[in-house]
Amino acid sequence: MTIAHAIDLILSLKQDNAVKSIYIKDWHLIKQLHSEVEPYTVPDIFADDWMNNIYGEKDDFRFVYAGTRGSSTLLHRDVYTSYSWSTNVVGCKTWYLFPPRAIACLRRFTRVETSELIPSLEALHTLVKDKNRKEFPQLELALGSMQTITQAQGETIFVPSNWYHQVHNDTDCASINRNWCNSVNLPSMYRAIVVELDHAEEALCDVRDMLQQSSRKGKEEWKKEFYGLVQDVAVKDAGWAWKGFWEMVLHNLKHPATAQALRPDGAANVSCNKDQ
């Protein structure tokens, strides 16, 4: 569905007083404008943005979200434990946030890292009422750690690394959103990519066995093909994997996203020779 079609649908639903809600998510507005000048100014505190210090035709993580009253996201964390910030241009939202220590409590099986997480706050509240449930045993602990924030028009919220959250539009809303990172949360993102690729590799174990058995090439050849598939799966799911990560790191070492004064205190003042 195009943005124009979504807007037409929203207008028609309002005209008919329909209850259905619509949420436009991950709209790459800046990229779509094909302009070197951004339509808004990024606050200085978020200026050291490695993920969006892009070049060429690379993908970006600069979004616009627009939704009708009652629309919402599912429970999620931002890509590879990146930070995010969101400014409400229009409307009022409620954010429900869970700190990293609550993640295990949101799982179907708390000690299994790959176990399914509760998909939404609505599902959490429903299951909490079932005192005889055998799965998701620690939802009460997760609910006890949840933080609720109301975001008014003109306000900006910062979501720390690895905080799961769900967002409800209390009114019709439009917001500017970015996923971003800097040198501080690079280690967290690195670990998240390792885990994501391990999970993808495990999910594709049948493909690995098939390639291993059918390949007439050497061990290194089928492994190269298999790990290429693993990377492709991760890219389709999250936007990029190792190639995108290391290209981002190298580019930001050569071309810092912002002046040294706007980088985190204690961040390494590292640069690369452009000829390297």
Automatic annotation (TrEMBL):
It holds the Pfam family JmjC. Signal peptide: none annotated. Coiled coil: none annotated. One of its GO terms (biological process) is positive regulation of translational termination. SMART domains: JmjC. GO terms for cellular component: cytoplasm; nucleus. Residues 31-197 form the JmjC domain. GO terms for molecular function: 2-oxoglutarate-dependent dioxygenase activity; sequence-specific DNA binding. This is JmjC domain-containing protein. The lineage of its organism: Eukaryota, Fungi, Dikarya, Basidiomycota, Ustilaginomycotina.
